[in-house]
Amino acid sequence: MRANYTVNESVQFRILSEGQISEIVGAAIEILETTGAVFYSTEALEMLKQAGAHINGNRARIPSALTKQALQSAPNSVGLYNSRTGKKAMALAGYNSYYGTGSDTPYFVDPLRGERLRARYQDVANAAKVIDALPHVDFCMSLGLVQDVPRLTSDRYQFKAMVTNTGKPMVITAHDIQGFADIVAMSEEVAGGTTELRARPFLVLYAEPISPLQHPKDSVDKLLFAAEHGIPVVYTPAPMAGATAPCTLAGTLASGISESLGGLVIHQLKQAGAPFIMGGVFTIMDMRTTIFSYAAPEFNLLQAAQTDVAHYLGLPIFCTAGCSDSNVLDQQAAAEAMFSILVTGQSGANLIHDVGYLEYGSTGSLEMLVMSNELIGMAKRFVRGIRVNKETLATEVVDQVGPGGHFLGEQHTLDYMRSEFWTPSLMNRKRYDEWKDAGAKTLGDRAHEQVLNILAEHTPVPLTKQQLDRFDEIIRNADQRHGYQ
Amino acid sequence: MSNYLEDLAQSVIVGQEDRVKQLTQQAIDSGADPVEIINQGLIPGMNVVGARFKVGQMFVPEVLMSARAMNGGMELVKPLLLDEELPTAGKVVLGTVKGDLHDIGKNLVGMMLESAGFTVVNLGVDAGPDKFLQAIKEHKPGIIGLSALLTTTMLSMKDTIEVLKEEGLRDKVKVIIGGAPISQDFADEIGADGFAPDAASATDLCKKLLA
């Protein structure tokens, strides 16, 4: 007999045992120690040397003690805030899951023409606006890569398109460290100053190594810049099993995680305790077409396994879901999006990106985004599980209604129907005739309508004229430095 | 005698380099015609591999193993051939452009080209216009292939084409480009001769350009 207990029976899973995790982490640390990695940064190599790593040219072999020290000093949680309200929007820790878009797809499905075109400024602005309106999309990445502005400064324009259209936290890409510096300056304008941005960060910087085991200069610079400024950074390897990592999933995990840890070591050497989010897009190369799959079952296994490892290491984890290898929004896209959304939710991944990707990450789609929002709603309800207690077992209500009665008029039903049941906004539950009379629309048709609705109706909280003027000044200066205009 | 040719082709198809070398050496030792070894043994085997890959029956690493096996045999036969008898579909210089270190895509293109009989000179990563220029002078390729993953580095493709024009070499070599952000539009914009979305179609493109 148990008394006075509350349990939230969440339907989470783990795919790796404690022993398996320990072996994978051990292998990753061993790779860093014996094979090492290449760092194209004299500053990083110098720091590593000082700390006791064995340096040979650009190659650093990192002793396990150094890696363990970095794991020790990195924080277990990262908080992110809404840039408009200043309220905490996400606590990246433990099993808290948040979903958001991916960034920088070269192509975008134009919401009005339905065609796959080069992504433009307006596409990213539209994406941010849609994200701002969707209840289950918690953070914003650009979705598209802005290509109708000067190429070398497009990162600043891209950030402007995002931050003017949503207050939700965002993950930011930049071409180089100057791009980051400009975006941070713009963010400080939004937050109200350097101290304010540090106290209530609404952005995460994004950097990536190149598999296998290479840390390019720009990525290292970004890591060190983030550490120095106390801005959270996600360091995201993208190993392709069989091509840029071993073909076996365990080998891909070990190799990819060693890349994450290599980044963590230099990040923590620069500033111990600076916020770091591990993670990445670990997947397979399709051996027939050579695509980098965003939806294979092995991709989903690797997402879940990475999350298990991150929980074990006590680091927040960046994962991937709501994406598809399909070239258009079709049955395949829906099936694949649901698969990864559910897996990452059940694994308890923290910062889950790439919602809205079609064509193995090459095309952004607002319809895919709003459809995935619906799927995330379903998944979140599933992951929440079934709460069992005296009140929810409802034996008293059963007794009151008795045999042959009904529960529709009970206060208990009114109290629970909205929290116990998930209510669809896009999934069809209409009876056939009603559905037919309403135009016999498919899920894709309804997703498209919701996109058009949001674009027409939703108004994000605007920034001030002073803030926008300052943005323009920063962008103008960057353009001039690069010789535009 | 025809039996060894079938065996040789079959060994190429299954990617057994040792077996291919052994059969090739035996054929050479027993006085077989080197041109026959290539044209009726090694290449027919590789043609089957190409066809099977195209319909999805074979995977990229298997194609790579077959290409290695074929080349293993080819190396033994080559010294016996006159220059004009040397089979090559053409020579291609490949590189990832300046500022970019992403090379898996470019390497895949190289492997597929080699398996289709091209001679490939791989310049590696971070290859600026000068590096391509030097390679053109040194190797005299029919085609140069430029690869980029980053939108900031793809501009180097245009620079390379401009340098070729300045040096009066633009009409001596075909320029093809590829990589995640690259499209036919961009190829047209910078005056490249071709674009291919993946390694297999890059091979077809090279065949077409040198036909």
UniProtKB/TrEMBL annotation, chain A:
| Top-level taxonomic group | Bacteria
What are its GO biological-process terms? methanogenesis; methylation
State if Transport is listed as a keyword: no
Q: Which UniProt keywords apply?
A: Methyltransferase, Transferase
Looking up Pfam families in the UniProt record yields: MTTB (PF06253)
Q: What is its EC number?
A: 2.1.1.250
The UniProt entry, under InterPro entries, shows:
MttB-like_sf (IPR038601), MTTB_MeTrfase (IPR010426)
Keyword Cell membrane attached: no
Entry's Gene Ontology molecular function annotations: trimethylamine methyltransferase activity
| UniProt enzyme class | transferase
Assigned protein family? Belongs to the trimethylamine methyltransferase family.
Q: What is this protein called?
A: Trimethylamine methyltransferase MttB
Which species is the source of this protein?
Answer: Acididesulfobacillus acetoxydans
UniProtKB/TrEMBL annotation, chain B:
Which CDD domains does the entry link to? corrinoid_protein_B12-BD
Q: Which organism is it from?
A: Acididesulfobacillus acetoxydans
Q: Which PROSITE patterns match?
A: B12_BINDING (PS51332), B12_BINDING_NTER (PS51337)
Molecular function (Gene Ontology), one example: methionine synthase activity
Gene3D superfamilies assigned to the protein according to its UniProt record, in alphabetical order: Cobalamin-binding domain, Methionine synthase domain
Q: Which family does it belong to?
A: Belongs to the methylamine corrinoid protein family.
Task: Supply the source organism's classification.
Answer: Bacteria, Bacillati, Bacillota, Clostridia, Eubacteriales
Q: Does the keyword Membrane apply?
A: no
Which protein are we looking at? Dimethylamine corrinoid protein 1
Q: Which NCBIfam families match?
A: pyl_corrinoid (TIGR02370)
